[in-house]
UniProtKB/TrEMBL annotation:
The keyword Translocase does not apply. Keywords: Hydrolase. This is HAD family hydrolase. SUPFAM superfamilies: HAD-like. It comes from Streptomyces bluensis.
Length: 267
């Protein structure tokens, strides 16, 4: 049986220093492996044990990193194990095949967004006009597909996020708050659509998935079995689904547990 494993990366399999949640005594903390360097600085980690599990998973299944990151941001990551044949970037906007974006898939995505959603410029301009420089640090557009803000989370007004979500909903967009980033993403731009396409190409008979944010909900619902960690938007909102297991682990320990569950299901 061909098993496809589609997993979110940030705060699911890999973790920034701020997201590690090393709550145990220092002497009992796990050994960490750096899997991403940016501007000559270490940025993302997994445990050494998780590194070995991911290597085993790459031999047991079709492992597909599935991320909201842009292609450039994804390519900074150096995951252990066999190089994945497929990867999903920009929340499903790009399917990479051996590291190269598939132009046919991307064209299909663009056509659907043009038909079903308000233009990116309208959304970007609204976010810029209604946000406050006192708590916004950066305005960004990713792959000409979606927009996000980098904010000071402790200063961010909760009401503003709710109002943006209502405004976006009426225009075919969705809003997700992840750490210090607020994403506005077109509703048809989904990880699940890209995963279904890769499952078709590989002939996968079983699909497993994991993720921590609202942008991962469609991915988890589309899989035969899914897992979410004890942190993140899904955990904070109590999100649940029949085929999705809510794990108690938080931080980098959750990444290790998710890989164990993937391997157990593959075997």
């Amino acid at each position: 049986m061909t098993v496809l494993v589609a997993s979110d990366l940030d705060r699911t399999l890999i973790y920034s220093a701020a997201a590690l949640a090393l709550t145990m005594p220092d002497a009992r903390a796990p050994r960490l492996l750096c899997v991403e360097v940016h501007e000559s600085r270490p940025l993302s980690y997994m445990t050494e044990t998780a590194s070995g599990l991911l290597t085993d998973l790459g031999d047991a299944a079709v492992f597909v990193p599935t991320t909201t990151r842009t292609r450039k941001q994804y390519q900074r990551i150096n995951l252990p194990g066999p190089a994945p044949e497929y990867a999903i970037c920009a929340n499903g906007g790009h399917i990479l095949v051996d590291g190269v974006a598939d132009p046919v898939w991307h064209a299909r995505v663009l056509a659907r967004l043009a038909d079903e959603c308000a233009p990116l410029d309208e959304v970007r301009q609204h976010m810029a006009a209604t946000s406050d420089p006192s708590w916004v640090r950066k305005h960004r557009v990713a792959e000409d597909l979606f927009a996000y803000l980098v904010v000071e989370r402790e200063l961010l007004p909760e009401e503003w996020v709710k109002e943006l979500a209502v405004w976006a909903e009426n225009r075919g967009w969705t809003v997700s708050l992840q750490g210090r980033k607020i994403y506005a993403v077109p509703k048809p731009l989904t990880k699940s659509a890209a995963v279904r396409e890769i499952a078709r190409r590989t002939g996968a008979e079983l699909t497993l998935a994991a993720g921590d944010s609202l942008l991962d909900a469609d991915l988890l619902l589309a899989a035969d079995r899914g897992w979410r960690p004890g942190h993140g938007e899904l955990a904070d909102t109590g999100w649940a689904a029949p085929a999705v297991t809510a794990l108690p682990e938080r931080g980098v320990a959750a990444g290790e547990r998710i890989l164990r569950e993937f391997l157990k299901e593959c075997r």
